[in-house]
Amino acid sequence: MDYTFTELTDEQKKYIKATIPYLEKAGVDLTAKFYSNMLEKNEEVRPFFNKAHQATREQPAILAFALLAYAQNIDDLTPLVGFVKQIIIKHTGLQIKPHHYPIVGTNLLETMVEVLGSEVASPPLIEAWATAYGNLAKLLIDGEREIYEQNQWDGFREFEVTSIEDESSDVKSVQFKPKDATQKVQIPQRGQYVGIRFTLDDGTVTTREYSLSSYDTVKNNKYQISVKRDRNGGIVSNFVHDKLRVGDTIKVSPPNGNFVYRHEESKPVLIFTAGIGITPMVSIMQQALESGREVIMHYSNSSVEVRPFTKVLQQLKEKYGKTFTLNEYISQAQEQEGSIKLDKVSNRRIESTDIPSNSVDYDVYLLGPSSYNDVIFGALAQKGVEKSKVATEVFGVYKP
């Protein structure tokens, strides 16, 4: 189905606005039912979705937000431009294609009738939402096409796992190369990720996105990701740690993502990261240091044992000396033998007082869990750093 843009009439906008109270009250119930219906009936879209995000209702909550925001801004969608760009990036990483959109649209409209009832979800209301969805699909498809046309290959290409190494007690680094030796990897921007499609032991096919944790492997026609074990039932991360073997085949989409090194900046670099959030930071700070820029890194972990990339950080300190400053925070234990101790180790969580008073003079990068990000954003704001000036990204489902 080819979507075309169709101007909504004033009457159609009224119908869409009429759904706002329902979306405010029970939007997540509606979207959770939508996902349940769609995934049950349409096997071809199942690999795109994380079951854990359905169970926690995290994914339905984001879609509910999107529907509500769309309805509230139906007269002028300008405030949603940034959010739409996030969706486009997420979709291209997963390799969402035009033929998937009718599946989503059909199930969404059918679920609206099912949940809202025929009295509320009348034919004119459903027609209005169908037109609005078609316009949004057109916008997303066009944006995604621009990215796809820049990629070196389309869809998922077969790669062979060449090595699996421990980075810490909870993190393994996996390197992989194209199975076809004549094929070359696409050169990523530092900080980008790749989508990986795994076939699990039970035959389930699922997709995850992982940041590239090394830029050096590219010269050997390989990619590297680093995966933290999710001890709360993470199906894919535990598969990588316990089942994935050298020689196995995985399917990989081209590098993607907007969290990248900002070459145009000449300021010194200030990095805040926690746990596995360091993954894309490695190549970013390597490039900054190679370019002669000062790098100050604030790195938080729960313990020394789980902290990845110890050797890499030590090597950078040995090579760049005072140009690279590492402030480490170990939150759940007293100082232990094995702390990097390059510059400063604090046996606590990072606090607002640790944020440099002149942070506004730095090119700032931030990546960690949402609770960590909230603390750092708040502290940076107190130092005069606008949120829009901070390079950041959210893993998992896309968020507003």
Automatic annotation (TrEMBL):
E.C. code: 1.14.12.17
FAD-binding FR-type domain boundaries: 154-262
CDD domains for the chain: FHb_fungal-globin, flavohem_like_fad_nad_binding
Record-linked InterPro entries: Cbr1-like_FAD-bd_dom (IPR008333), FAD-bd_FR_type (IPR017927), FNR_nucleotide-bd (IPR039261), Globin (IPR000971), Globin-like_sf (IPR009050), Globin/Proto (IPR012292), OxRdtase_FAD/NAD-bd (IPR001433), Riboflavin_synthase-like_b-brl (IPR017938)
GO biological process: cellular response to nitrosative stress; nitric oxide catabolic process; response to toxic substance
Annotated PROSITE patterns: FAD_FR, GLOBIN
Family statement drawn from the similarity comment of this UniProt entry: In the C-terminal section; belongs to the flavoprotein pyridine nucleotide cytochrome reductase family.
Name of the protein in question: nitric oxide dioxygenase
Organism of provenance: [Candida] railenensis
